[in-house]
Structures are given as C-alpha cells and as structure tokens.
Give the backbone structure.
Amino acid sequence: MLSVFLFIPASGLCKTGGAERHSSHSPLRPDGPVMPCSIVKIQLSGSINPGMLQFFRRAVRQAELQRAELLLVILNTPGGLVRSLREMIQTVMASRVPVVVYVSPAGAQAASAGALFTMSAHVAAMAPGTNIGAAHPVLPGGAKPGSTMNQKMENDVAALARSIASERGRNIKWAEEAVRKSVSATADEALKLGIIDCIAKNEAELLSKIDGMEVRMAEGTVKLHTVPYSVTEISPGLRERIISTLADPDIAYILMMLGAAGLYFELAHPGTILPGVAGAISLILGLFATQVLPVNTTGLLLLLLAMLLFLMELFVTSHGILGAAGVVSLLLGSLMLFDTPNTGVALSPAVMWPTVLVAGTFFMTIAFVATRAQLRRPQAGREALIGERGVVRETVGPGEGMVFVHGELWRAVSDEVIETGTEVEVVGMNRMKLTVRKAGPANQAE
C-alpha cells in the first residue's frame, strides 16, 4: 500500500459535453489549512474479464468504506468480455464515490470494451499520445459478418453505448459509431468531440484540473475537492490474478480437457498416479473457471456426458459405439459451452477443433487399448494354461503321468491312456495337476 501526500495549486480548464468547467478551488479555506482529500487509486491493465471485474468491485467498496473523495482508475486495455464490461459499468453507476478513469500512460489505449468503460466514468480523462474507440463487438467464435448473431451483439452494445453517453452527457453519435463503425480518436480529438473531460500529462495535473469540478452522482451533484490529496493505491490480490488468468475461455476449456484426459488415463491404467493427480488439479481449475465465465448448462452437461460415455467404453463391450457417442457429445458440448449470443464469449475455433480432435483420438485410443487388454488371453495362472498344447513325457491315463506344457513339466491325468510323445491339450486344472486330452486334428484346426 502506497500513501503519498502532495500539495498542488489548482489550475486548468476542463470540458464535458461541450460545457466548460472552471476550477477555482483554493488550497486554503478561510478557516485555515485544508485537510488532504483521500483518493483510492488502482491500475487496470490487460483484458476486461471477471478477474478485473472483481478487483474493480473491491476497489469501489474500499473507496466507499474509507469515504474517499474519488476512485482514480489508470486504464490501459484492448477490450474484453461484454458481460464483465456490463457489470463494471453497473458498479460505476451505483458507486457512492466518483470514479475517474484516466487512460495512461502515453501509448495506452481504451479500446473496444475499454472505450465504453471510460465513457461511463463520472470523469473521463486521457494522457497525450493515447487513443480511445474501436468498440465494435467481435465474437471469439468467429461468427460471419452480417450474421444474425453479430447483428444482435452489435445492436445490443450500440444501445449500451448510447445509454452511457446520454447519462454522462457525452457525444452520443460518436459513441454509437465507435460500436458500429469501429471509429477511434486520439486524446485531442476525444476532448474536442466531447468524449472525455480532460487531457492531462500526469496524475498530478489531472487532479489539479478536476479540482472544483461538479459531477452528477445517484444522490445528486457532488463538487470534487482534489487539492491537496493523499493517495492509497490498491493492487490485485492472488485470487484476482488467478481468476484473470483462468477467465480466458480457451484456457478454461483446455484445462477441463486435460483434467478429463488425466483422470481417464488413471482409471484405464490404475496406479500410474501422476496423470490422475495432474488431471484432478486441471479439472478443478477448469471447473473453477466455469464459475466466473458465462457457461451454458447444456454444453457443460454434454461434456460431462462425453466423459461418462468414454468411461463406460472401458467396462462395456460396445464395439466402439459408446466411444463414438462420446466424441459426438464432446463436439456438441464444446460448441454450446459458452452463452455466446448473450455475452460474446466463445471458444476460438483454432483451439476448439484441434482440442476436440486430439481429445477424441486420445479417449478412443485408450478405450481400444484397455478393451484389447481385457479380451487378451491370460499369460499366467490357471486361465493361461487352459487350451495350451504340450507333449506327453510319461504315459498319462487315469493314473498320473507327466506332460511338458508352457515350457514346464506338469503332472497330468486323462480319461484315456495317452502314450509318450503324443501331443495333448490342457482342458482343466485341479490344484497343481492338469487334465489333458489328445490334441486331435479337429482341435489342431482350432
């Protein structure tokens, strides 16, 4: 946790929705020195996903609990999941603390979902050399342009952009074009178009410029007092970093497939241990990821059914029917795993198809090997001797004789007298004594 105290005179001009706001707040009140305002600061970098959502929610709660003047969000994102974006915007709208989104440093971007998140803030600012826009929704599943699914997503996100711009007094036309035409703007262009409120070279300049600004909150208009200030910076926790990593639908899917394959191998070859342990860990992580991703229940059930069918193939002689049904169930479950039309989350075809092919081949191969091992003739013990052929070394009859079978000499009996040198076949075993018969031509044909 980093605490910083700075004293900066207020100066500057900000612009919001075409209306100018002058900051005239003095660092000294008539009744004496001003206590520094409390500011909570976080950095959101990378894709917008459930991990980032949880971190942002925690920051908002902490800012509210410590009665901070504002929550400062340093943003640099290429975009992310629509579902997580919506929940982050809802959190901003419901926040009792003003949220300031600052796209920084130079070279950073607020692209795609990041553009809408920036516009939803009570104060939106950018550093020189940054850009915002290109918010057209892209389905990871590779839906064709102009398809019904793409049009539905585009219309939905465009409506969200218009709603946000209207609520914050920003450029509604540009917000919609950012979604429908993927337009983008530099920091200077964004300020002129009424997309953002300020351009600031650094955080100190930003806080100086917004000092005295009035923002509209759910409870009414609030005037910001940001000079002087004390900053408390929050970093993502271990859980939030793990969730951010696992929230990629491709990673979650691969973990589930690896987990299922490991457990399947362990059940087919008990005692190998390592595949079972690694599989269990991977499967648990994959299932954990499904808790933070918009998973379709039907798709998940089909994947579980595929695992069950593959397991049944190990113990039920179905001549490959159960395995083939498992492959079909695996494919359908993969296609339906995520609620793509409503969330924009889908498996990448470059990941899904090779994974289905490799996983299906793996499961079928293991099932074939295990089935063949079960049907193979035993190589040792009583079952291994039944049907074996040997040669009489001492005459065999109702009384004991000796036969050479399976590379060993055995005591043997027979219902008939069989002379030395005759080929015999083992038909039974009583303790350590074999029961044999002559291996006639019919038997040799077998």
User: Anything to note?
Assistant: The first strand starts at residue 3 and ends at 6.
